[in-house]
Amino acid sequence: MLNDYLPLMILFGLALALAAMVVALGHLFGPRRPTDRKSQPYESGMKPIGPGQRRMSVRFYLIAVLFILFDIEVVFFLPWAVVFRDLKIVGFIEMTVFILVLLVGFIYAWKKGALEWE
Predict the structure, then answer these.
(1) Domain assignment of residue 42, yes or no
(2) What mean pLDDT value characterizes the chain?
(3) Tens digits of per-residue pLDDT, 83-118?
(4) Model-level pTM?
(5) 46: which strand partners?
(6) What is the CATH number of the domain that holds 82?
(7) d(Cα 14, Cα 8) in Å, to the nearest integer?
(8) How far is 69 from 71, CA to CA, in rounded Å?
(9) CB 114 within 8 A of CB 57
(10) Could you list the residue range(s) of the whole structural domain that residue 17 is in?
C-alpha cells in the first residue's frame, strides 16, 4: 500500500527541496544594502504619520469572522445542488438540518447584537 503513495511522497519531497533551494539561493546571492529609507514602512508613497499600530474595535473582527463563517457555509450549497437528484430524500433532509443549524447560529448572533455596526 505504501508503494501507491511513493510518487506523491517523491513529488512532495521535490517541492520542499526546490522551495528550500530557492530561499537559500536568494539569501546567499541577494543584495543586502539596508538604508534608513528602505527600513521605513511604505504608506502608498506618503510619509508615515503617527504610530504603525492602530487600535481596532473588536466588533470589526466579530463581523469579519461571522461573514467568513456564513459565507463559507453557503459554498456547500453548490455541490449539494449539483447532486441533488442523486441524493433523493436523504440528501434533502441532511441539507435541511444543515440549514437549520446555520439559521440557529445566525439568529443567535442577531439576538446577541453581533451584527450591529455602531
Answers:
(1) no
(2) 87
(3) 989 999 999 999 999 999 999 999 998 998 888 877
(4) 0.51
(5) 43
(6) 1.20.58.1610
(7) 10
(8) 6
(9) no
(10) 2-29+57-112
